[in-house]
Design brief:
80% helix; 350 residues
């Protein structure tokens, strides 16, 4: 079943629950573009391959293209997130629980941005939805374990493959150019870094755009009093809408997070920045094709760690890494608990 844009607009202004759900979902997409996109462009700014304004414009354009093109070609990530939680039951109560989950995600992401911590909206989304689904169903029957385990696979893949590819890529690049005068490679790696930033922007949109579109679909189907299962056709108008909102969020930028990821954690040269971008983009592409919902933040950060460690272990500021890892670990129980409690509150109030 596919919902037309005209049908959506008619329902949007006649069904208050759909209006609230849509506004909250778009707010989450906007915050994601605002707080996650800086991770994609942090390295090219820190190596001065691009100025902040140019990098944000680049990321905005390729975020849009990533959401649009990848969703048309392969929407397996969207389907994984869509089928991960069970919001079936009384439509009114289910919509209240979904709104609570989205509210929890926006709260968590905004707090993390304020403190300059590159947390993962992907992990926050999964945790918030899971907590709300558990509250709605009164137990873990609200979670589809077969789909949720893909989150674990993605977490492991993005950690070890991101770090490993970063380490190997920078070693290979260093070996290939070891006899070339460093001054002569600066122009090449500056352009390569711009390519890498574009690839990261594209893959950020490809991964994260799909996750949030699945929530949009969930809200629309709940309003109609039904939940479709299995493979669903995502309408083109929804892909374009989510692409534009994420691109708008990206255009706002986020210098605090750029500074944490690209400047404070490890000092990179242009060839190292390119290696980190390439490694993270390849990891994200593989995860998307396999249908694993992974964190762009997590993947890019571990790739940077791998690149820094290839030079020497001490070149990575591990105290900052510990703060990031702690935030990642706390996101699942923290945002999940907020989603659970807010769902209980929303269901009681509304």
């Amino acid at each position: 079943m596919e919902i037309s844009f005209i049908e959506f607009l008619q329902q949007l202004f006649t069904i208050p629950a759909l209006f609230v759900t849509s506004v909250l979902t778009l707010a989450v997409i906007l915050v994601n573009g605002w707080t996650d996109a800086p991770n994609a462009i942090a390295t090219c700014i820190s190596t001065r391959s691009l100025n902040p304004r140019g990098a944000i414009v680049l990321a905005t354009v390729f975020n849009f293209l990533g959401v649009l093109i990848m969703t048309i070609l392969n929407n397996s990530v969207a389907m994984t997130v869509y089928n991960m939680v069970d919001f079936r039951g009384d439509t009114h109560t289910a919509l209240a629980a979904l709104c609570a989950a989205l509210f929890a995600i926006v709260t968590w992401a905004t707090a993390a941005w304020w403190f300059g911590i590159p947390t993962s909206e992907s992990h926050a989304l999964i945790a918030g939805l899971s907590g709300a689904a558990i509250a709605l169903q009164g137990g873990f029957s609200g979670i589809d374990g077969a789909e949720w385990v893909k989150v674990i696979y993605g977490l492991v893949l993005s950690t070890f493959l991101g770090f490993g590819l970063g380490f190997v890529t920078v070693k290979v690049v260093g070996f290939l150019f070891k006899k070339v005068d460093r001054r002569k490679t600066q122009g090449f790696f500056r352009n390569a870094q711009i390519f890498g930033a574009a690839a990261m922007g594209f893959m950020h949109g490809a991964q994260d755009g799909q996750k949030f579109m699945s929530v949009f679909l969930l809200g629309m189907f709940l309003v109609k009093g039904q939940i479709e299962t299995g493979q669903i056709q995502i309408p083109l108008w929804l892909i374009v809408l989510c692409s534009l909102v994420m691109a708008l969020g990206t255009s706002i930028g986020g210098y605090r997070i750029i500074k944490s990821v690209g400047m404070d954690m490890v000092k990179l040269e242009k060839y190292q920045g390119f290696s980190a971008d390439l490694a993270a983009a390849v990891c994200l592409l593989l995860s998307s094709l396999l249908g694993f919902p992974v964190s762009t933040t997590h993947t890019k950060t571990t790739a940077i760690m791998g690149v820094g460690s290839a030079k020497r272990i001490s070149s990575v500021k591990w105290s900052l890494v510990q703060e990031m890892v702690l935030t990642w670990i706390l996101t699942f129980p923290g945002c999940g608990l907020i989603g659970f409690l807010m769902a209980k509150l929303f269901m009681w109030l509304f």
